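Run: sequence + L-homoserine -> complex structure.
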Amino acid sequence: MKNEIKIFSPATVANVACGFDVLGFCLDNKGDEMVIRKVSEKGIRITHIEGYDLPFETAKNVAGVSALAMYEHAKPDCGFEIEIYKKIKPGSGIGSSAASAVGSVFGMNELLGKPYNKTQLTYFAMKGEVLASKSEHADNLAPALFGGFTLVKSTLPLDILQIPTPKELYATLIHPQIQVKTADAREILPKEVPLKDAIAQWANVGSLIHALHTSDYSLIHRSLQDIIVEPYRKQLIPYFDDVKYAALEAGALGCAISGSGPSIFALSKGKEVAEKVERAMQSMYSKTDIEYNTFVSQINTQGIKIL
Ligand code: HSE
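>> structure
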């Protein structure tokens, strides 16, 4: 059996407009690389971090915390070293902490001969996600591990559904270069919501799931609406309404905050439209004094993978 493995841990979009904390999808050209090494000395050590300034101390690093959760459960007769090549900017809203959290447990599981399934790996990774966001949610973790669209039906017990991906669906992302901490973006949300808003929101979640199953792009368009979270969080993202307007005008099926922001995503039918949406977002944001970057991605149906 191999003693070292290099993996690609993908970026993800959580919430997908209407599905706060339950829906997510996986991106295919943005992600971290990690090397996981099995060593004789027991324990978990983070030996290398590149890209961003993150803690080396295992118990303070998201990848370390999820690795420790799995290590304490598996009690293997070995230790692990983790190298992190961070490409997803922390606090960008495309599952940076989730990529770290799933990367370590996925790699360790492979080196141990796969004793755990992906749902069990999600459980360990949730322990790492808590460190970053102060909340146990799995809507970035599940699509990173399973690929495609996922619905976290419950976290206790963990119940994850894989939802089909319509073939022509493309995502466009814009990342304004400001940082929004997930914990802060959760803090500003109301603790209760009016029943009429809840009704509208769960109708959209149901119809979005149906639309993804039937590749009904018009229904995807009608379902990609968030009336509960977006009104609060958009205040943290400069020019959110303008970007959304530009994306929809350019033909996007929908446009909403990616995870807890500040990234904004749009979904489109076909690469051409997705690229037109990208140009529309760029043209809008170029008028502001905020730095940004954009990219177009197919939906990654494979999820995390060995390189
Ligand atoms: N569902 C989470 C949120 C995703 O929106 O707070 C970010 O971790």
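>> summary
The first helix runs from residue 62 to 74. The longest strand covers residues 23-39.
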